[in-house]
Amino acid sequence: MSGEREVSVFRLWLGAVAIIALATTLLVVLPTLSLRDVPPPDGLAPYTADQLRGRQVYIANGCVYCHSQQPRDPSVGPDQQRGWGRPSVPGDYHYDEPHLLGTMRTGPDLLNIAVRQPSRDWHLGHLYQPRAYLPGSIMPAYPFLFERRRGTTPQPGEVVVALPPGVAPAGTRVVATPDALALVDYLLSLDRSYPVTRAETPR
Amino acid sequence: MTIGVGLLLATFLLSVASLGLFLWSMSRGLFGRGEAAGRVIFEPREVGLVEEPAGPVGDEDALQGVMNRTGHTGEFSVLTPDQASERARLDASSRLPVLAALTSAVIWLVLASAFGLVASLKLHLPDWLVEQPWLTFGRIRPAHLNAVGYGWCSFAGLGVSLWMYPRLLKTPLVGGRIATAGIALWFVGVSAGTWAVLTGHSAGLEWLEFPWQADVPLFLGGTLVGVSLLLTLQRRTVPHLYVSVWYISAGLVWLPILLAVAKWPGLHRGVPQAAMNWWYGHNVLGLWFTPLGLAAIYYFIPKTIGKPIHSYNLSLIGFWTLAFFYSQVGGHHLIGGPVPSWLVTLSIVQSVMMVIPVVAVGINQHRTMWGHFAALRHSPTLRFVVTGGMLYTLASVQGSLQSLRVVNATTHFTHFTVAHAHLGLYGFFSLVMFGAMYFVMPRVLDWEWPSARMISLHFWLVTGGFAIYFTGLSIGGWLQGLAMLDASRPFMDSVRITIPYLVSRSVGGALMTLGHLVFALHFALMLGRRGDRRGAALLRRPSPEPVGVAAGATA
């Protein structure tokens, strides 16, 4: 009795699966096949263990929700003029898993932040209190990546953050945690300023 | 370059050709009997009879009066006591899983609102709540997104779908316990995933932040709900599958496929992973939330006003074109990025093609409601669902425009996109779900909503709040984009210029949150059976023929 009815349910599911299979082929399988064998550019080194740990801190604290890592072609936007670097190519992300391209620029692009800000002290202090460095910044402060300790004399093994006067409470020192140091290690690895050939540019 | 263009042209032609093939194969034997299929949500002589359990009986009478005046179909408008009892039996069959899903939905709505409001405030109060890692913006924001998506929206969509299924198929829900177990598993998954995001164990991809360990219960839970619906589908007693069944069934096929491909370990990295990310991020909206939302629109508007959908065939065209085009649009999130340009162009083309299904839905909804807008005054369900439906059209048209390179150049990387996302998932989906829940809950509990005023308050708080939210953030995002494009202005300009609009977003968001608290309180009062009126009055059906009490006996 239900032959025709079964056909219509079957067609529905068959159609639904076929459509998603086509979309997956176009948007997932083809890009993977065409970019899987792109070699890393000569200038790109794999992340070190510390940098990878810092990358996890970057992910855990959701930096990607405000910072992209994809300077674009001058025809699309003035990214290069802002000093964010040449347009990125797929090879630049050879070692990136998960990818952190981002979709938001509440803050600036970070793919070449190490070129613009090579100072570890600057990064540590800026993470502790961004507004001590950039008035009007709306980046959150990350005091939980640091420890405030009594006294101003550094103890052995401590990395004390060099802050502008008045930022740390008087009589205390701000010590970077291993997470903060790893995060800055990662930020300082973000330098994709090596040249790439035209062949490495996706078309 | 030429290879790219050729490939693009080939895929485009293939797209159009296969779409034609689809429409042809799907329409065979379907188009001729379209109008009959549109009537399966009514009993044989019921067309013309309104059904609106959300308000007091007086409102339902007034609604019937409006429909009698403005567009009575001249048909019988009769639901016999037997038919009413049978309907009450169907409604009762899905009670347990629906109640579990909708209660979970309300819990996650409140949690998600709190996360969202905190995240919004933090954007203009960057030194507020900074001592605790779990409260940092970069964790609260994804917690908000996931609590909304996998918590509130998914639970509401699953609950409303589970409730509609027996009515759409005219057979009691089979495997209600299986479905309830599925809802429970889903709750475990979304709780574990949100906890992981807040404690710093995010997987790092937008919309895919949950670690795979949390996605397994989601996958299994969704499958169990699907099993229950499949079993019910096999026992159906209706001659035609109503379009809502298509949407729900397809959505329950699509979501597990999306999750499985996206979470397959070791498969994705680098730029292809970004392509996969937005294939998923857009499809979870287009192939999961949108189908569930449209399924509800297609049921509740015709059912509430007692008038079949304007064109059933159009709704099927809308279904297949939505699936076809929406599934390929994700790449427009990567315009200008380091991805092959054919990928982005393909997505832009399909984004524009989305106009077809959107117009299909828009025309259908509008032509069904046309001439009866006075009905909105007497029906909370319609107020929410019709507003949601209109915002669906708006969100979709905006989405198509936003994919164009010329518009995208300004809006990409800005708060404008965030406003757009909320137009879709809040303006469209959440409002439709509110309306559906106002209709469903009295039928599930055999109890009236305790307070018509609280429903009204909820409506005005969330629509007013959302109007502020959306307008402010869209303007702010656009200005932010213009500032970023202007190389002569320092980047900080693009930050400063948004501040007043970010504040207005917090104001709008606070009003929305307040509305949600009113709704949650009302929901709790109803669960606690507050209010004087009992179910007998609730199920009274105004009708030219004496049908009397429908199913009070089950109360």
Structure description:
The complex is a heterodimer of chains A (203) and B (555). Chain A is 34% helix and 5% strand. Chain A has 203 residues and is mainly alpha-helical. Chain A folds into two domains: 1-37; 49-200, Cytochrome Bc1 Complex, Chain D, domain 2 (Orthogonal Bundle), CATH 1.10.760.10. In chain A, strands 1-2 form a two-stranded antiparallel sheet. The longest helix of chain A is centred in the first third of the chain and has 33 residues, at 3-35. In chain B, α6 crosses α10 (270-305), α9 (243-263) runs antiparallel to α10 (270-305) and α10 packs across α16 (415-445). Chain B has helices at residues 2-27, 34-38, 57-71, 81-93, 95-124, 137-169, 176-198, 212-234, 243-263, 270-305, 312-326, 341-353, 355-369, 380-403, 405-411, 415-445, 452-485, 491-496, 499-527, 535-538. By secondary structure, chain B is an all-alpha fold. Classes of the chains: A mainly alpha (203), B mainly alpha (555). Chains A and B meet through α1 of A and α1, α5, α6, α9 and α10 of B.
Question: Could you write a compact summary of the structure shown?
Answer:
The complex is a heterodimer of chains A (203) and B (555). With 203 residues, chain A is mainly alpha-helical.
Task: For this entry, give a set of tags.
heterodimer, A: 203 residues, mainly alpha, Cytochrome Bc1 Complex, Chain D, domain 2, 2 domains, two-stranded antiparallel ribbon, B: 555 residues, 0% strand, globular, disordered C terminus
